[in-house]
Fold these 4 entries.
Entry 1:
Amino acid sequence: MKSSARTSQTARVITLAVAGAVGGFLFGFDSSVVNGAVDALQGQFELSQALTGFAVASALIGCAIGAYAAGRLADRWGRIPTMLVGAALFLLSAFGTGLAFSVWDLIIWRIVGGLGIGIASVIAPAYIAEISPRKMRGRLGSLQQLAITIGIFAALLSDSIFANAADGAANVLWLGLEAWRWMFLASAVPAIVYGVIALLLPESPRYLMQNGKEEKARAIMATIVPADELERQTRDIQDSIAADKLAKTSGSLRGRAFGLKPIVWIGIALSMFQQFVGINVIFYYSTTLWKSVGFDESNSFTISVVTSVTNIAVTLVAIALVDRVGRRPILLFGSAGMAVSLAVMAIAFSQAVTVDGEPSLTGAWGPIALIAANLFVISFGASWGPVVWVLLGEIFPNAIRARALGLAASAQWIANFLITVSFPPLAELSLVLTYGMYAVFAALSFIFVFRLVPETNGMSLEQAETLFVSKKKKGTAPSTPVEEGVGV
């Protein structure tokens, strides 16, 4: 009987985590839906390379603002109401971008959608971390990245379907609207689904306890925590909240390290390194990139879809390993793999020749660049993609978790914006320089993890927070929690 109840509770936790991760699907869909529309937008609105980059990246401005505000909204209103706000903003953006009459109109609606995606990018990992048992938190936290990769795949697949149905993204498809407009209008579907799911989810027990609703929190925890662990987990949360209230600055992000607490800077650095390796260049510009080096539009769409499927597959591998191997070894492996594959891409593009004013890879260099790009996606998808979200969900103290996550996610979106808006002019200048720069950031991410990121596998949220704070002070990063004297 007890085994049956535990199985039922485990199934419920997984269901809630999967539902909460739908915010990641919106993140991924919005990130890549523009991929298939880039050339059509550039032609229809007669955009320069710089304005093209800004139009693509404009959503990320909203994402940064939404992510920064999400923590405060979540602490004031709760996790579920904040999810609903994000869904509503994204729905408005889907119709606005699909029916845009000028590039500036399009940019405004993409910023509105970005606000919703920024909110979802913060709430999803926070919610999953707060409802997950410690032994499953790594795998469940990785669902955020899995949802992002599935969203990327869905966006690229729908882009391909619309473009092929109209025989080109710039051609009219249905109701007098071009295929690229239907690519954006399709975003309304996941926005509605996310809003409906949010209405069905229970509120985070941690948020409820923080706001004096202990009875309601216990009722929810009883459905996801085994009976013999309920009191201990409830007490852990209560002790954490009490300790935070006693510390005068516990609810503040401010600290002595350039105005912020060191743990907040760790989160910001993890977020920025995740973007500075250039991963979203693959998912925002891959169709245009492969066309520029010799592949036709149809094959470019196919390559982009295959790459997104690869991303999903390796994310599943990361989910299977994150609670077995640990966070730190996976990040180190990923950094090394990204550095090597990006360096190979830079070398490949150094061999490009100019044909009709465009770079073209001749001989074996085209396939080499294609293989290197997919190895880069594999290295990222199996490591930095999912594991950063796991760490961001577990390293911050309870009193500042939502706000610190918001700041880290905001930094991630700003880094994403900088990479996205700079790629078209940088690529026009030199793809060798561009991918070489990304390779350098990948190498630096290895050094950062090796020096400053400790292992948190198997710890409660409270233990993980304590380890990061103590290890930041000592300046070392043990490979296992046992070295810190913390049980697993």
Entry 2:
Amino acid sequence: MFKKILIAEDQEMGSFSVQKTLEDLNIPNVDYVYYCDDALAKVQKSIRENIPYDLLITDLSFEEDHHKQNIKDGKELIKKIREIQPSLKVIVFSGEHKSGIIDSLFKEYHINGYVRKARNDSKELKKSMAAVYINENYLPFDLKQDMKKLNSYEFSAYDITLVSLLSKGILQKNIPIHLQEKDIKPYSLSSVEKKLNSLKEDLQVTSNEQLVAFCKDLGII
């Protein structure tokens, strides 16, 4: 099992769940920080001293207070740490539930595990650590089902652009103007209408408003 772990978490309840889990697993060396800047500094120091961390467990959201921080959230922290220690295993422990955001953590930030803060999260943390330790990515079963649902739709960049424009209050009939300005093709009104109608049919929604709400719930816009 992991020997040296860094926890980045600014909420006491979240920190308590992690602490209980690590105590149960008898992890010998655990450091806790409440700010992302401090987490990066800890990792930098561990590398300089040639005693690097094996695992980072981090939240995504960190509340701002009187301590001015350069790194604002967990995503940015992961990116910064990946630049200096690419091999460090990362588990995100967060209340985030949107499938699109969780999916991007694996695809864009190359995290190794995700556990949602909820009832029985200590049990899920133990499972995630066991899986990640043997080089397997970990996602709880219910989130796996949501991820399958998300990936089954295969949203293209064009799809996301159209829905994003709708979410900004741009009328469907005016979308071609915005697409043409950015040289995004196809930008004819008939192409836009055809694509939006296809999306609504695939997602089983009946209006552009429902389409926007659905995509927001998934976290793709």
Entry 3:
Amino acid sequence: MKKYILIFTVSLFTLITSCGKENLDLNPFDSVGADVALNTPSDFESAVNGLYRQMIFGSYGASMMSFPDVLTDNLIFVVTGRQTQKTTFEWLYNANNTQQGFMSQSYTVIQQANFILENIDRIPDGAQKNNIIAQAKAARGLAHFMVNNVFAK
């Protein structure tokens, strides 16, 4: 009997304290939607600056600076060193060991540039809009070019 009373009490408590649908639609705390993100010219300028930040810390980071030289034997690999570019130096690529981080960061730049270009009509025509379009297209083109240089035959 106590078992049934406990089940009934828990069920009743759950029914009484459950929330309505209005409490289930929450916005994320770490991002904003597309309708809020890019509305003013300064928003677009910040987005373009984000492209450059992504390129500096992603595509053009420290490993990318040395990556081509390690591939072409312009740098000497030190066996007693940190061995950060050993896979690149020895050409030991496989499905689990590639320059995947470089590729995903490059495609993040491409995706962000496309997002800027898709929403650019929210600001008025003029020199600032043309400048933002040019920078987004240049960053996207450069990211495609770098991916091609690293991974194409």
Entry 4:
Amino acid sequence: GHPDGRGSDAYNDDLSVRRAETVRNLLVEEMGTDYVYVVEGRGSREPIAREGGPDDEQARARNRRVEFSYTIRMPGGGEEETDDGLGVAGQSVGWPAPFTDDPGDVVASVERDGVRLDVHPLRRDGAYVVGTVTLTNTTGEPLDPDLDAAVVAGGPEQFSKGTLGGFQLVEPQSGLVRYVAQMNFGDGVYSGFAEEVHQLQPGRTYELVAVFPAPGSEVEQLTLRAGVFGEIPEVPVE
């Protein structure tokens, strides 16, 4: 469990435990008591968004969160089919996608300031979807695309600049926003799971990926918020 930065260390330590316990109780209600649940509070020591700026309200809201992971131990290494328990988690988890170096057809194109963004289908891979885009410099001069403008209020600014980390996926029906997945390296160090964008040479095309938490299996299309390139609707999920 994690709170925002307000309050004393002692208060935040207690609040983060209670926040985690609330989620634990919901999981027990959905999945039952056949699993071992471990709760931990991290206080306000691991923020993922910088507080105190003009987007302070949104940043604090993102820092108030619960992170969880799970380990599955199968007897004999076999596979288990179930209609409950981990089947609940399976609503947003699929099989790993087979490897391919083909990003698929271009489903949308947007050009801004001499840079063309081509968007390919989103691809389910386990608990994530992989977004693949290509950037092409259509001018005769090297360009540094202004992706810093993709950073959004409350987003993890320190990990977004110069990458696709500011991109977002939006579920059209619910309006739920999915940010680029954050990798936790320990000691409060996080990094967005998105590739860096370097200087674009004239006439060259660069393929880049960003990884997001997967939506439910019923979601077949998502809207891509691509920073300075705007919103790109109806990107298919394969």
